[in-house]
Design a protein that fits this description.
- The strands form two sheets. Strands 3, 5, 6, 7, 9 and 10 form a six-stranded antiparallel β-sheet that branches.
- With about 240 residues, this protein is α+β, with helices and mostly antiparallel strands.
- The chain is built from three helices and eleven strands.
- This is PEP-CTERM protein-sorting domain-containing protein.
Length: about 240
């Protein structure tokens, strides 16, 4: 009988331990993405904000910041030479994403570029950016991205709180149209930024009160003991 009681209390203690362990922390992650619209360059300190981490979710461990820069462009040119020519169109810009409180890990810098080559005929006598000697192109594009990881406590604090953390986006265009001899040309460069912030954190689960854990353990133990006592009495009486 005494041995049975000890076994029962042991089972209750084990149950209480399982319940207490259920409150341990687990890893989780959360991402937010935001972007600007395409704007004509040059762009100086355009604000782009992203949601901060809500500290009620747990303890922030790491922040991963992904910065994507995109260019879009339109170009036109006319070859005014008396012979055929090769025209080269380069879409290019220097992009930056900065946040004063995150230096020296920002600014993040990008230099997306794409080069297009066209063969055009001798001048057709009309400067209309059309025909055999001219072109209009509305499909120029270039993209580049970079990633930075933050684990320093001071940086993590800047990402924590309510509202947004604001970044400054700038873009300076270097696009150009090149060709031998005489050409008439023009080019427009537009830029946009997209940022994705991923928060890795320890998610703390609710830990039961110690008295509640003990109570559950004792209730379970008494229930097991009572059941075994009844079984023992039945066995003794038979």
């Amino acid at each position: 009988m005494t041995t049975t009681l000890f076994k029962t209390l042991g089972a209750a203690t084990t149950l209480a331990g399982i319940i207490a362990t259920a409150g341990s922390a687990s890893a989780a992650s959360l991402s937010y993405t935001t972007s600007t619209n395409f704007q004509t360059t040059d762009i100086v300190d355009s604000i782009i904000g992203v949601q901060k981490f809500n500290s009620s979710l747990g303890t922030l461990q790491k922040v991963t910041l992904n910065f994507v820069g995109e260019l879009s462009g339109n170009a036109e040119f006319e070859n005014r030479n008396s012979r055929a020519s090769t025209i080269e169109v380069t879409l290019n810009a220097n992009l930056s994403l900065s946040q004063p409180d995150l230096e020296p890990q920002t600014p993040l810098l990008l230099n997306p570029e794409n080069v297009y080559t066209y063969q055009v005929a001798p001048y057709d006598g009309v400067t209309d950016f059309d025909g055999a000697s001219g072109r209009r192109i509305n499909t120029l594009a270039a993209t580049k991205s970079t990633t930075s990881v933050f684990t320093d406590t001071q940086f993590l604090q800047n990402f924590t709180g309510t509202g947004n953390i604001d970044f400054l986006f700038s873009a300076v265009a270097n696009s150009i149209v090149r060709g031998s001899g005489n050409i008439t040309s023009g080019i427009d460069t537009l830029a946009k930024a997209s940022i994705t912030v991923t928060y890795d954190y320890e998610e703390a689960q609710t830990v039961p009160e110690s008295s509640a854990v003990l109570g559950l353990g004792l209730i379970a133990g008494l229930g097991l003991w009572s059941q075994r006592k009844q079984n023992w009495l039945k066995t003794s009486g038979s």
